[in-house]
Amino acid sequence: MSDINIKITDREGVTHDVVAPTDMSMNLMEIIRSYELAEEGTIGVCGGMAMCASCQVYVINDPGLEPMGDEEDAMLAEAFHVKDNSRLGCQLHMVNEMEGLEVEIAPYP
């Protein structure tokens, strides 16, 4: 089993040190849900299909994320509260290279 350490700031401004597995094919949205860091029904509304932006996060420390794909870019172009460092949590799959990732969960529309 391989785990990485990441920091997630919730919508109330509280930062959580989180251990995320890299061997379970989980994405950041699923990690946020499993740690209950966002109110039920306000994250991953579309089920992780890059169709709702409810899992939008602001990347504070990027240890080397994969580039944004076309679907993610298109969804963020239509989302609220978007910043230059916005990403969709459902599109960020937990891999060893994400050790030290720091994000803040964006406000829910």
Give a quick summary of the entry.
The protein has 2 helices and 5 strands, in the order E-E-H-E-H-E-E. It is of the alpha+beta class. The mean pLDDT is 96.
What do you see in this structure?
The protein has 109 residues and is of the alpha+beta class. The protein has one domain (3-105): Ubiquitin-like (UB roll) (Roll). It is 15% helix and 25% strand. The chain has two helices and five strands. The protein has helices at residues 28-34, 70-78, and strands at 3-9, 15-21, 56-61, 86-88, 102-105. It has a five-stranded mixed sheet. It is globular. It starts with a strand and ends with a strand. The mean pLDDT is 96.
Task: Supply the key terms.
metal-binding; 5-stranded mixed sheet; 109 residues; globular; electron transfer activity; alpha+beta; 2Fe-2S_ferredoxin-like_sf; Ubiquitin-like (UB roll); iron; Beta-grasp_dom_sf; 2 helices
Mean pLDDT: 96
For CATH, the homologous superfamily is named as Beta-grasp domain
CATH class bucket: Alpha Beta
Assign an overall shape.
globular
Taking strands numbered 1, 2, ... along the chain, how are they ordered across the largest sheet?
Answer: 2-1-5-3-4
